[in-house]
Amino acid sequence: MPRAWVWIPLLIGWLPVWVLFTVLFMSVHQEPWQRAAPVALRQMLTAALLGLLVHRLTLRLPWPYPLRLRFVAIHALGAAGYAVAWLLFNSLIDSIRHGQLVLNLGPGAAPYLITGVWFYVMIAGIGYANRTAERAAQIAMLEARSQLAALRMQLQPHFLFNALHTVVQLIPLDPRGAVRATEQLAGLLRTTIEEQRDLVPLQTEWAFVQRYLAIEGIRFGERLVVRSDIDAAALACKLPSFALQTLVENAVRHAAAPSIEPTTLRIAARLDAGQLSLSVADDGPGMEPDQLERSTGTGLRRLRERLAWLYGGSARLQFRRTDPHGLTATLTLPQIANGDDDE
Amino acid sequence: MSEDARVSALIVDDEPVARAGLRHMLAEVDWVACIGEAGNGLAAVEMINRLRPELVFLDIQMPGLLGTELLAHLQHRPLVVFTTAYAEHAVAAFEIGALDYLLKPFGPERLAAALDRVRGVVGEPLAPALDRFGEAMGPGPISRLFVRNGRAIVPVPVGGIDWIEAVGDYVALHVGAATHLLSLSLNRLEARLDPQRFVRIHRTHIVNLDHVTAFRRQDGGGLAAELHDGTQLAVSRSKAQELRSWAR
Fold first, then answer.
1. What is the pLDDT of residues A283-322, one digit of tens each?
2. In Å, how far is B9's CA from the nearest CA of chain A?
3. Domains of chain B: residue spans and CATH
4. Residue numbers in B near A218 (CB within 8 A)
5. Collapsed DSSP state (helix, strand, coil) of residue B168
6. Nearest to A258 among B15, B21, B63 (CB)
Protein backbone atom coordinates (compact mmCIF):
# COMPACT_ATOMS: atom_id res chain seq x y z
CA MET A 1 0.00 0.00 0.00
CA PRO A 2 1.50 3.38 -0.95
CA ARG A 3 2.33 5.63 1.95
CA ALA A 4 -0.16 8.30 0.85
CA TRP A 5 -3.06 5.95 1.58
CA VAL A 6 -2.32 6.20 5.30
CA TRP A 7 -3.83 9.73 5.19
CA ILE A 8 -7.18 8.64 3.83
CA PRO A 9 -8.63 7.12 7.06
CA LEU A 10 -7.30 10.16 8.91
CA LEU A 11 -9.18 12.53 6.58
CA ILE A 12 -12.33 10.44 6.75
CA GLY A 13 -12.07 10.51 10.55
CA TRP A 14 -11.99 14.32 10.57
CA LEU A 15 -14.88 14.79 8.06
CA PRO A 16 -17.67 14.36 10.66
CA VAL A 17 -15.94 17.01 12.75
CA TRP A 18 -16.14 19.39 9.83
CA VAL A 19 -19.84 18.61 9.37
CA LEU A 20 -20.49 18.99 13.10
CA PHE A 21 -18.71 22.37 13.23
CA THR A 22 -20.62 23.58 10.17
CA VAL A 23 -23.92 22.67 11.74
CA LEU A 24 -22.88 24.34 15.01
CA PHE A 25 -21.89 27.58 13.27
CA MET A 26 -25.13 27.55 11.29
CA SER A 27 -27.28 27.09 14.40
CA VAL A 28 -25.31 29.28 16.87
CA HIS A 29 -24.44 32.18 14.55
CA GLN A 30 -27.42 31.86 12.20
CA GLU A 31 -25.01 31.65 9.28
CA PRO A 32 -25.85 30.12 5.89
CA TRP A 33 -23.91 26.92 5.26
CA GLN A 34 -21.85 28.59 2.50
CA ARG A 35 -20.25 30.84 5.13
CA ALA A 36 -20.20 28.30 7.97
CA ALA A 37 -18.50 25.51 6.03
CA PRO A 38 -15.18 27.32 5.23
CA VAL A 39 -14.84 28.56 8.83
CA ALA A 40 -15.53 25.07 10.15
CA LEU A 41 -12.98 23.61 7.69
CA ARG A 42 -10.27 26.01 8.92
CA GLN A 43 -10.93 25.10 12.53
CA MET A 44 -11.02 21.42 11.73
CA LEU A 45 -7.70 21.59 9.85
CA THR A 46 -5.90 23.41 12.68
CA ALA A 47 -7.20 20.82 15.14
CA ALA A 48 -6.02 18.02 12.84
CA LEU A 49 -2.57 19.56 12.32
CA LEU A 50 -2.04 19.97 16.06
CA GLY A 51 -3.44 16.44 16.42
CA LEU A 52 -0.38 15.13 14.57
CA LEU A 53 1.75 16.37 17.49
CA VAL A 54 -0.55 14.59 19.96
CA HIS A 55 -0.17 11.43 17.92
CA ARG A 56 3.62 11.83 18.09
CA LEU A 57 3.42 12.14 21.85
CA THR A 58 1.41 8.93 22.19
CA LEU A 59 4.11 7.16 20.19
CA ARG A 60 6.87 8.53 22.42
CA LEU A 61 5.00 7.79 25.63
CA PRO A 62 3.80 4.16 25.74
CA TRP A 63 0.90 3.29 28.01
CA PRO A 64 2.47 2.03 31.25
CA TYR A 65 1.38 -1.16 32.99
CA PRO A 66 0.41 -0.51 35.74
CA LEU A 67 -0.85 3.02 35.12
CA ARG A 68 1.45 5.68 36.53
CA LEU A 69 0.68 9.12 37.88
CA ARG A 70 3.43 10.66 35.75
CA PHE A 71 1.72 9.39 32.61
CA VAL A 72 -1.63 10.90 33.60
CA ALA A 73 0.04 14.20 34.54
CA ILE A 74 1.86 14.46 31.21
CA HIS A 75 -1.38 13.97 29.32
CA ALA A 76 -3.29 16.45 31.50
CA LEU A 77 -0.66 19.04 30.65
CA GLY A 78 -0.74 17.93 27.03
CA ALA A 79 -4.53 18.35 26.82
CA ALA A 80 -4.38 21.85 28.31
CA GLY A 81 -1.52 22.76 26.01
CA TYR A 82 -3.38 21.43 23.00
CA ALA A 83 -6.56 23.37 23.75
CA VAL A 84 -4.67 26.65 24.23
CA ALA A 85 -2.52 26.05 21.15
CA TRP A 86 -5.62 25.37 19.05
CA LEU A 87 -7.26 28.59 20.23
CA LEU A 88 -4.10 30.59 19.50
CA PHE A 89 -3.57 28.90 16.12
CA ASN A 90 -7.08 29.84 15.00
CA SER A 91 -6.62 33.39 16.28
CA LEU A 92 -3.32 33.63 14.42
CA ILE A 93 -4.98 32.60 11.16
CA ASP A 94 -7.81 35.12 11.67
CA SER A 95 -5.30 37.84 12.57
CA ILE A 96 -3.44 37.20 9.32
CA ARG A 97 -6.66 37.13 7.32
CA HIS A 98 -7.94 40.43 8.80
CA GLY A 99 -4.54 42.11 8.98
CA GLN A 100 -5.06 42.91 12.66
CA LEU A 101 -4.77 41.17 15.99
CA VAL A 102 -7.90 39.10 16.61
CA LEU A 103 -8.54 36.82 19.59
CA ASN A 104 -10.97 34.31 18.19
CA LEU A 105 -13.06 33.13 21.14
CA GLY A 106 -16.05 31.90 19.14
CA PRO A 107 -18.77 30.95 21.58
CA GLY A 108 -16.50 31.90 24.52
CA ALA A 109 -13.16 30.75 25.97
CA ALA A 110 -14.49 27.90 28.15
CA PRO A 111 -16.47 25.97 25.51
CA TYR A 112 -13.54 26.55 23.11
CA LEU A 113 -11.01 25.04 25.49
CA ILE A 114 -13.33 22.19 26.44
CA THR A 115 -13.71 21.32 22.77
CA GLY A 116 -9.90 21.35 22.49
CA VAL A 117 -9.53 18.96 25.43
CA TRP A 118 -12.22 16.79 23.93
CA PHE A 119 -10.22 16.60 20.65
CA TYR A 120 -7.07 15.78 22.57
CA VAL A 121 -8.72 12.91 24.43
CA MET A 122 -10.17 11.55 21.18
CA ILE A 123 -6.82 11.69 19.35
CA ALA A 124 -4.78 10.24 22.19
CA GLY A 125 -7.49 7.65 22.90
CA ILE A 126 -7.55 6.44 19.32
CA GLY A 127 -3.75 6.35 19.32
CA TYR A 128 -3.58 4.21 22.45
CA ALA A 129 -6.44 1.99 21.29
CA ASN A 130 -4.51 1.28 18.10
CA ARG A 131 -1.37 0.66 20.11
CA THR A 132 -3.21 -1.76 22.40
CA ALA A 133 -4.57 -3.75 19.50
CA GLU A 134 -1.10 -3.76 17.98
CA ARG A 135 0.40 -4.85 21.27
CA ALA A 136 -2.02 -7.74 21.64
CA ALA A 137 -1.22 -8.88 18.11
CA GLN A 138 2.48 -8.47 18.77
CA ILE A 139 2.32 -10.41 22.02
CA ALA A 140 0.48 -13.21 20.26
CA MET A 141 3.11 -13.18 17.53
CA LEU A 142 6.00 -13.12 19.97
CA GLU A 143 4.40 -15.98 21.85
CA ALA A 144 3.98 -18.04 18.71
CA ARG A 145 7.54 -17.27 17.73
CA SER A 146 8.86 -18.08 21.16
CA GLN A 147 7.10 -21.42 21.17
CA LEU A 148 8.56 -22.34 17.83
CA ALA A 149 11.91 -20.96 18.73
CA ALA A 150 11.80 -22.04 22.35
CA LEU A 151 14.59 -24.55 22.07
CA ARG A 152 16.72 -22.27 20.00
CA MET A 153 16.23 -19.13 22.06
CA GLN A 154 15.75 -20.08 25.66
CA LEU A 155 18.38 -22.78 25.62
CA GLN A 156 21.29 -22.39 23.28
CA PRO A 157 21.58 -25.45 21.04
CA HIS A 158 25.18 -25.89 22.11
CA PHE A 159 24.04 -26.05 25.69
CA LEU A 160 21.75 -28.89 24.66
CA PHE A 161 24.43 -30.83 22.78
CA ASN A 162 26.96 -30.36 25.55
CA ALA A 163 24.41 -31.40 28.17
CA LEU A 164 23.59 -34.51 26.15
CA HIS A 165 27.29 -35.27 25.90
CA THR A 166 27.55 -34.96 29.67
CA VAL A 167 24.69 -37.43 30.08
CA VAL A 168 26.21 -39.90 27.60
CA GLN A 169 29.59 -39.74 29.33
CA LEU A 170 28.00 -40.18 32.76
CA ILE A 171 26.22 -43.40 31.78
CA PRO A 172 29.19 -45.74 32.34
CA LEU A 173 30.86 -43.57 35.01
CA ASP A 174 27.92 -42.78 37.25
CA PRO A 175 24.65 -44.37 36.09
CA ARG A 176 22.61 -42.76 38.87
CA GLY A 177 24.06 -39.38 38.09
CA ALA A 178 23.28 -39.95 34.43
CA VAL A 179 19.65 -40.70 35.27
CA ARG A 180 19.44 -37.61 37.46
CA ALA A 181 20.96 -35.40 34.77
CA THR A 182 18.60 -36.85 32.16
CA GLU A 183 15.61 -36.08 34.37
CA GLN A 184 16.81 -32.53 34.88
CA LEU A 185 17.41 -32.04 31.20
CA ALA A 186 13.99 -33.50 30.37
CA GLY A 187 12.44 -31.13 32.91
CA LEU A 188 14.15 -28.17 31.27
CA LEU A 189 13.02 -29.21 27.81
CA ARG A 190 9.47 -29.83 28.97
CA THR A 191 9.19 -26.38 30.52
CA THR A 192 10.78 -24.76 27.49
CA ILE A 193 8.36 -26.42 25.13
CA GLU A 194 5.21 -26.29 27.23
CA GLU A 195 5.38 -22.94 29.03
CA GLN A 196 2.61 -20.84 27.46
CA ARG A 197 2.28 -18.04 29.98
CA ASP A 198 3.69 -14.57 29.51
CA LEU A 199 4.10 -14.08 33.22
CA VAL A 200 5.03 -16.81 35.68
CA PRO A 201 5.58 -16.73 39.45
CA LEU A 202 9.22 -16.39 40.46
CA GLN A 203 8.88 -19.74 42.21
CA THR A 204 8.34 -21.48 38.85
CA GLU A 205 11.09 -19.56 37.12
CA TRP A 206 13.55 -20.17 39.94
CA ALA A 207 12.87 -23.94 39.82
CA PHE A 208 13.66 -23.85 36.10
CA VAL A 209 16.85 -21.86 36.63
CA GLN A 210 17.96 -24.26 39.37
CA ARG A 211 17.60 -27.23 37.00
CA TYR A 212 19.56 -25.37 34.38
CA LEU A 213 22.29 -24.54 36.90
CA ALA A 214 22.41 -28.15 38.10
CA ILE A 215 23.34 -29.27 34.59
CA GLU A 216 25.79 -26.44 34.06
CA GLY A 217 27.23 -27.35 37.47
CA ILE A 218 28.03 -30.87 36.23
CA ARG A 219 29.52 -29.49 33.02
CA PHE A 220 31.64 -26.77 34.57
CA GLY A 221 32.53 -28.62 37.76
CA GLU A 222 34.48 -26.40 40.15
CA ARG A 223 34.61 -23.56 37.64
CA LEU A 224 31.04 -22.51 38.40
CA VAL A 225 29.99 -21.43 41.89
CA VAL A 226 26.42 -20.25 42.45
CA ARG A 227 25.22 -18.25 45.45
CA SER A 228 21.57 -17.39 45.65
CA ASP A 229 19.61 -15.09 47.90
CA ILE A 230 15.95 -15.37 46.98
CA ASP A 231 13.63 -13.49 49.30
CA ALA A 232 10.72 -15.78 50.26
CA ALA A 233 8.32 -12.86 49.89
CA ALA A 234 9.40 -12.48 46.27
CA LEU A 235 8.55 -16.06 45.26
CA ALA A 236 4.94 -15.21 44.48
CA CYS A 237 5.90 -12.22 42.32
CA LYS A 238 5.30 -12.42 38.60
CA LEU A 239 7.95 -12.05 35.96
CA PRO A 240 8.10 -12.78 32.23
CA SER A 241 8.77 -16.47 31.68
CA PHE A 242 12.49 -17.22 31.09
CA ALA A 243 13.52 -13.67 32.07
CA LEU A 244 15.76 -14.77 34.94
CA GLN A 245 16.93 -17.73 32.85
CA THR A 246 18.08 -15.37 30.09
CA LEU A 247 20.16 -13.33 32.55
CA VAL A 248 21.67 -16.40 34.22
CA GLU A 249 22.51 -18.11 30.95
CA ASN A 250 24.03 -14.89 29.73
CA ALA A 251 26.29 -14.77 32.79
CA VAL A 252 27.29 -18.42 32.37
CA ARG A 253 28.17 -17.89 28.73
CA HIS A 254 29.98 -14.58 29.05
CA ALA A 255 31.57 -14.92 32.47
CA ALA A 256 32.04 -18.58 33.43
CA ALA A 257 32.66 -20.18 30.03
CA PRO A 258 35.68 -18.05 29.06
CA SER A 259 37.28 -18.13 32.54
CA ILE A 260 39.92 -20.61 33.60
CA GLU A 261 39.47 -19.68 37.24
CA PRO A 262 36.20 -20.44 39.07
CA THR A 263 33.44 -17.90 38.50
CA THR A 264 30.89 -17.03 41.16
CA LEU A 265 27.34 -16.12 40.17
CA ARG A 266 25.26 -14.29 42.74
CA ILE A 267 21.56 -14.43 42.06
CA ALA A 268 19.27 -12.32 44.21
CA ALA A 269 15.55 -11.57 44.23
CA ARG A 270 13.81 -9.05 46.49
CA LEU A 271 10.36 -7.59 46.76
CA ASP A 272 10.93 -3.94 47.37
CA ALA A 273 8.19 -1.28 47.56
CA GLY A 274 5.90 -3.19 45.23
CA GLN A 275 8.68 -3.92 42.74
CA LEU A 276 10.35 -7.24 42.07
CA SER A 277 14.07 -6.66 41.87
CA LEU A 278 16.24 -9.40 40.37
CA SER A 279 19.98 -9.30 40.04
CA VAL A 280 22.55 -11.62 38.52
CA ALA A 281 26.14 -10.67 39.31
CA ASP A 282 29.27 -12.43 38.12
CA ASP A 283 32.96 -11.95 38.80
CA GLY A 284 33.98 -12.94 35.30
CA PRO A 285 36.19 -10.93 32.97
CA GLY A 286 33.39 -8.38 32.51
CA MET A 287 32.67 -6.47 29.34
CA GLU A 288 31.32 -3.09 28.39
CA PRO A 289 27.55 -3.25 28.87
CA ASP A 290 26.82 -1.95 25.37
CA GLN A 291 29.31 -4.41 23.89
CA LEU A 292 27.39 -7.13 25.69
CA GLU A 293 24.10 -5.99 24.20
CA ARG A 294 25.59 -6.22 20.74
CA SER A 295 27.45 -9.49 21.13
CA THR A 296 24.94 -11.49 23.05
CA GLY A 297 22.75 -12.56 20.20
CA THR A 298 19.04 -12.79 20.46
CA GLY A 299 18.43 -13.71 24.11
CA LEU A 300 18.77 -10.28 25.70
CA ARG A 301 17.23 -8.47 22.76
CA ARG A 302 14.17 -10.66 22.92
CA LEU A 303 13.91 -10.13 26.66
CA ARG A 304 13.97 -6.35 26.15
CA GLU A 305 11.27 -6.63 23.48
CA ARG A 306 9.05 -8.67 25.74
CA LEU A 307 9.60 -6.27 28.66
CA ALA A 308 8.58 -3.33 26.49
CA TRP A 309 5.38 -5.00 25.38
CA LEU A 310 4.44 -6.45 28.73
CA TYR A 311 5.25 -3.44 30.93
CA GLY A 312 5.35 -0.43 28.64
CA GLY A 313 8.16 1.67 30.04
CA SER A 314 7.84 0.51 33.65
CA ALA A 315 10.31 -2.39 33.63
CA ARG A 316 14.03 -1.67 33.88
CA LEU A 317 16.88 -3.90 32.74
CA GLN A 318 20.33 -2.53 33.41
CA PHE A 319 23.90 -3.78 33.20
CA ARG A 320 26.80 -2.29 35.04
CA ARG A 321 30.38 -3.32 35.64
CA THR A 322 31.23 -4.57 39.10
CA ASP A 323 34.49 -4.06 40.95
CA PRO A 324 37.12 -5.30 40.49
CA HIS A 325 35.76 -7.16 37.46
CA GLY A 326 32.53 -8.72 36.32
CA LEU A 327 29.08 -7.64 35.33
CA THR A 328 25.80 -7.21 37.19
CA ALA A 329 22.43 -7.41 35.50
CA THR A 330 19.51 -5.87 37.36
CA LEU A 331 15.91 -6.34 36.34
CA THR A 332 13.21 -4.33 38.12
CA LEU A 333 9.59 -5.23 37.48
CA PRO A 334 6.53 -3.48 38.89
CA GLN A 335 4.03 -5.83 40.48
CA ILE A 336 0.33 -5.44 39.80
CA ALA A 337 -1.43 -6.36 43.03
CA ASN A 338 -3.51 -9.50 42.48
CA GLY A 339 -2.87 -8.81 38.80
CA ASP A 340 -4.35 -10.79 35.95
CA ASP A 341 -3.96 -14.28 37.27
CA ASP A 342 -3.62 -16.42 34.22
CA GLU A 343 -2.61 -19.63 35.96
CA MET B 1 54.23 -56.16 24.58
CA SER B 2 56.11 -53.04 25.51
CA GLU B 3 54.12 -50.10 26.80
CA ASP B 4 55.70 -47.60 24.39
CA ALA B 5 54.16 -49.28 21.39
CA ARG B 6 50.75 -47.91 22.32
CA VAL B 7 49.69 -44.61 20.81
CA SER B 8 50.04 -41.88 23.46
CA ALA B 9 47.00 -39.65 23.71
CA LEU B 10 46.18 -36.42 25.54
CA ILE B 11 42.63 -35.26 26.32
CA VAL B 12 41.88 -31.54 26.21
CA ASP B 13 38.41 -30.43 27.31
CA ASP B 14 37.19 -27.84 29.80
CA GLU B 15 34.41 -30.09 31.10
CA PRO B 16 35.52 -32.61 33.72
CA VAL B 17 32.81 -35.14 32.85
CA ALA B 18 33.70 -34.98 29.17
CA ARG B 19 37.35 -35.70 30.06
CA ALA B 20 36.46 -38.54 32.41
CA GLY B 21 34.11 -40.06 29.83
CA LEU B 22 36.70 -39.97 27.05
CA ARG B 23 39.37 -41.38 29.34
CA HIS B 24 36.99 -44.18 30.24
CA MET B 25 36.26 -44.97 26.59
CA LEU B 26 39.96 -44.89 25.70
CA ALA B 27 40.74 -47.29 28.55
CA GLU B 28 38.80 -49.90 26.57
CA VAL B 29 41.14 -49.49 23.60
CA ASP B 30 44.23 -51.69 24.00
CA TRP B 31 46.51 -49.80 21.71
CA VAL B 32 45.94 -46.28 23.08
CA ALA B 33 47.57 -44.98 26.26
CA CYS B 34 46.03 -41.87 27.76
CA ILE B 35 48.98 -39.91 29.17
CA GLY B 36 47.20 -36.83 30.49
CA GLU B 37 44.34 -34.35 30.53
CA ALA B 38 44.21 -30.59 30.21
CA GLY B 39 41.24 -28.43 31.21
CA ASN B 40 42.00 -25.28 29.23
CA GLY B 41 43.83 -24.10 26.14
CA LEU B 42 46.91 -22.71 27.91
CA ALA B 43 47.47 -25.85 29.98
CA ALA B 44 47.02 -27.89 26.81
CA VAL B 45 49.80 -26.04 24.97
CA GLU B 46 52.16 -26.58 27.88
CA MET B 47 51.31 -30.30 28.21
CA ILE B 48 51.50 -31.06 24.49
CA ASN B 49 54.91 -29.41 24.22
CA ARG B 50 56.16 -31.22 27.32
CA LEU B 51 54.61 -34.69 26.94
CA ARG B 52 54.66 -34.82 23.12
CA PRO B 53 51.64 -37.08 22.70
CA GLU B 54 51.07 -38.65 19.30
CA LEU B 55 47.35 -38.00 19.45
CA VAL B 56 45.33 -35.16 20.99
CA PHE B 57 41.58 -35.05 21.51
CA LEU B 58 40.86 -31.37 21.39
CA ASP B 59 37.72 -29.48 22.44
CA ILE B 60 37.26 -26.18 20.61
CA GLN B 61 35.30 -23.83 22.90
CA MET B 62 37.59 -23.55 25.89
CA PRO B 63 38.72 -20.80 28.22
CA GLY B 64 42.23 -19.52 27.63
CA LEU B 65 42.67 -20.50 23.98
CA LEU B 66 40.30 -21.96 21.43
CA GLY B 67 41.22 -25.47 20.32
CA THR B 68 41.64 -24.21 16.77
CA GLU B 69 43.95 -21.35 17.87
CA LEU B 70 46.02 -23.56 20.09
CA LEU B 71 47.70 -25.49 17.27
CA ALA B 72 49.66 -22.40 16.23
CA HIS B 73 51.44 -22.43 19.61
CA LEU B 74 52.71 -26.01 19.44
CA GLN B 75 56.36 -26.98 18.98
CA HIS B 76 55.28 -30.57 18.54
CA ARG B 77 52.59 -31.47 16.03
CA PRO B 78 50.40 -34.38 17.16
CA LEU B 79 47.52 -35.98 15.30
CA VAL B 80 44.42 -33.99 16.20
CA VAL B 81 40.86 -35.20 16.65
CA PHE B 82 38.51 -32.34 17.52
CA THR B 83 35.67 -32.99 19.95
CA THR B 84 33.03 -30.28 20.05
CA ALA B 85 29.32 -29.49 20.12
CA TYR B 86 29.82 -26.87 17.40
CA ALA B 87 29.35 -28.20 13.89
CA GLU B 88 30.27 -24.86 12.36
CA HIS B 89 34.02 -25.17 13.00
CA ALA B 90 34.39 -28.41 11.02
CA VAL B 91 35.64 -26.89 7.78
CA ALA B 92 38.23 -24.78 9.57
CA ALA B 93 39.28 -27.81 11.60
CA PHE B 94 39.97 -29.95 8.55
CA GLU B 95 41.74 -27.04 6.89
CA ILE B 96 44.23 -26.92 9.72
CA GLY B 97 44.81 -30.63 9.32
CA ALA B 98 42.48 -32.32 11.78
CA LEU B 99 42.33 -36.06 11.38
CA ASP B 100 38.70 -36.25 12.47
CA TYR B 101 35.95 -34.13 14.00
CA LEU B 102 33.77 -35.71 16.68
CA LEU B 103 30.49 -33.91 17.27
CA LYS B 104 29.21 -34.07 20.82
CA PRO B 105 27.44 -36.06 21.94
CA PHE B 106 29.46 -39.08 20.83
CA GLY B 107 29.96 -42.53 22.26
CA PRO B 108 32.38 -45.44 21.82
CA GLU B 109 31.24 -46.32 18.29
CA ARG B 110 31.88 -42.93 16.76
CA LEU B 111 35.11 -42.75 18.73
CA ALA B 112 36.14 -46.13 17.28
CA ALA B 113 35.70 -44.77 13.75
CA ALA B 114 38.02 -41.86 14.61
CA LEU B 115 40.51 -44.28 16.13
CA ASP B 116 40.44 -46.35 12.93
CA ARG B 117 41.72 -43.31 11.10
CA VAL B 118 44.40 -42.77 13.73
CA ARG B 119 45.47 -46.38 13.33
CA GLY B 120 45.58 -45.94 9.58
CA VAL B 121 48.01 -43.03 9.91
CA VAL B 122 50.40 -44.60 12.41
CA GLY B 123 50.24 -48.20 11.24
CA GLU B 124 48.93 -51.10 9.22
CA PRO B 125 46.76 -52.93 8.49
CA LEU B 126 43.89 -50.54 7.98
CA ALA B 127 40.47 -51.09 9.45
CA PRO B 128 38.21 -52.73 6.84
CA ALA B 129 36.12 -49.56 6.59
CA LEU B 130 39.20 -47.58 5.50
CA ASP B 131 40.69 -50.19 3.18
CA ARG B 132 39.67 -48.37 0.02
CA PHE B 133 41.33 -45.19 1.21
CA GLY B 134 44.65 -46.91 1.86
CA GLU B 135 46.61 -44.70 -0.51
CA ALA B 136 45.23 -41.58 1.09
CA MET B 137 46.35 -42.47 4.59
CA GLY B 138 49.40 -40.86 6.11
CA PRO B 139 52.22 -40.13 3.66
CA GLY B 140 55.04 -40.84 6.09
CA PRO B 141 56.36 -44.28 7.05
CA ILE B 142 54.34 -46.08 9.69
CA SER B 143 55.66 -46.65 13.18
CA ARG B 144 53.70 -49.74 14.17
CA LEU B 145 51.80 -52.75 13.01
CA PHE B 146 48.56 -53.73 14.68
CA VAL B 147 48.30 -57.41 15.44
CA ARG B 148 45.09 -59.08 16.43
CA ASN B 149 45.36 -61.16 19.56
CA GLY B 150 42.02 -62.69 20.39
CA ARG B 151 39.76 -59.63 20.66
CA ALA B 152 42.59 -57.29 21.46
CA ILE B 153 44.55 -55.24 18.96
CA VAL B 154 48.21 -55.19 19.95
CA PRO B 155 50.57 -52.60 18.52
CA VAL B 156 53.98 -53.91 17.44
CA PRO B 157 56.63 -51.22 16.91
CA VAL B 158 58.28 -51.63 13.52
CA GLY B 159 61.74 -51.15 15.06
CA GLY B 160 61.36 -54.44 16.92
CA ILE B 161 60.61 -56.47 13.80
CA ASP B 162 63.51 -58.67 12.59
CA TRP B 163 62.10 -59.65 9.26
CA ILE B 164 58.83 -60.00 7.41
CA GLU B 165 57.80 -62.91 5.29
CA ALA B 166 54.99 -63.26 2.75
CA VAL B 167 52.84 -66.31 3.46
CA GLY B 168 50.06 -66.62 0.92
CA ASP B 169 47.68 -63.67 1.47
CA TYR B 170 49.29 -62.94 4.81
CA VAL B 171 52.54 -61.54 6.07
CA ALA B 172 54.33 -63.08 9.02
CA LEU B 173 56.13 -60.64 11.30
CA HIS B 174 59.14 -62.19 13.03
CA VAL B 175 59.73 -60.34 16.26
CA GLY B 176 62.34 -62.12 18.36
CA ALA B 177 60.93 -65.52 19.19
CA ALA B 178 57.37 -64.49 18.31
CA THR B 179 55.64 -64.62 14.95
CA HIS B 180 52.51 -62.58 14.10
CA LEU B 181 50.31 -63.10 11.09
CA LEU B 182 48.70 -60.08 9.44
CA SER B 183 46.21 -60.00 6.59
CA LEU B 184 48.15 -57.64 4.36
CA SER B 185 50.16 -57.80 1.13
CA LEU B 186 53.93 -57.55 1.31
CA ASN B 187 53.89 -54.91 -1.44
CA ARG B 188 51.50 -52.71 0.46
CA LEU B 189 53.51 -53.10 3.64
CA GLU B 190 56.78 -52.37 1.86
CA ALA B 191 55.31 -49.11 0.53
CA ARG B 192 54.56 -47.89 4.04
CA LEU B 193 57.84 -48.88 5.72
CA ASP B 194 60.91 -46.66 6.02
CA PRO B 195 63.12 -47.67 3.03
CA GLN B 196 66.29 -46.68 4.93
CA ARG B 197 65.59 -49.42 7.39
CA PHE B 198 63.51 -52.09 5.70
CA VAL B 199 64.84 -53.65 2.55
CA ARG B 200 63.02 -56.07 0.30
CA ILE B 201 65.79 -58.64 -0.18
CA HIS B 202 63.63 -61.23 -1.83
CA ARG B 203 60.22 -61.64 -3.46
CA THR B 204 58.99 -63.03 -0.13
CA HIS B 205 61.20 -61.24 2.46
CA ILE B 206 61.68 -57.83 3.91
CA VAL B 207 64.49 -57.49 6.40
CA ASN B 208 65.17 -54.90 9.08
CA LEU B 209 68.73 -53.72 8.41
CA ASP B 210 69.16 -52.81 12.10
CA HIS B 211 68.91 -56.50 12.94
CA VAL B 212 71.22 -57.80 10.20
CA THR B 213 74.69 -58.75 11.48
CA ALA B 214 76.16 -59.65 8.10
CA PHE B 215 75.54 -60.47 4.47
CA ARG B 216 77.35 -63.72 3.63
CA ARG B 217 78.12 -65.52 0.43
CA GLN B 218 76.47 -68.93 0.39
CA ASP B 219 78.03 -72.14 -0.84
CA GLY B 220 75.81 -72.05 -3.91
CA GLY B 221 77.15 -68.58 -4.82
CA GLY B 222 74.08 -66.67 -3.66
CA LEU B 223 74.01 -64.03 -0.95
CA ALA B 224 72.25 -64.42 2.43
CA ALA B 225 71.46 -61.98 5.21
CA GLU B 226 72.34 -63.23 8.66
CA LEU B 227 70.35 -61.86 11.59
CA HIS B 228 71.64 -61.58 15.16
CA ASP B 229 69.69 -64.71 16.15
CA GLY B 230 71.44 -66.70 13.44
CA THR B 231 68.57 -66.75 10.97
CA GLN B 232 69.80 -66.89 7.38
CA LEU B 233 67.66 -65.24 4.70
CA ALA B 234 68.28 -65.69 0.99
CA VAL B 235 68.84 -62.51 -1.03
CA SER B 236 67.51 -62.58 -4.59
CA ARG B 237 70.02 -62.27 -7.41
CA SER B 238 68.89 -58.85 -8.57
CA LYS B 239 68.86 -57.49 -5.01
CA ALA B 240 72.29 -59.00 -4.36
CA GLN B 241 73.71 -56.96 -7.23
CA GLU B 242 72.12 -53.83 -5.88
CA LEU B 243 73.57 -54.49 -2.43
CA ARG B 244 77.03 -55.06 -3.89
CA SER B 245 76.85 -51.77 -5.75
CA TRP B 246 75.98 -50.05 -2.44
CA ALA B 247 78.91 -51.71 -0.72
CA ARG B 248 81.47 -50.34 -3.17
1. 988 777 777 766 656 678 888 888 887 888 889 999 998 8
2. 18
3. 3-124 (3.40.50.2300), 184-247 (no CATH)
4. 17
5. coil
6. B63
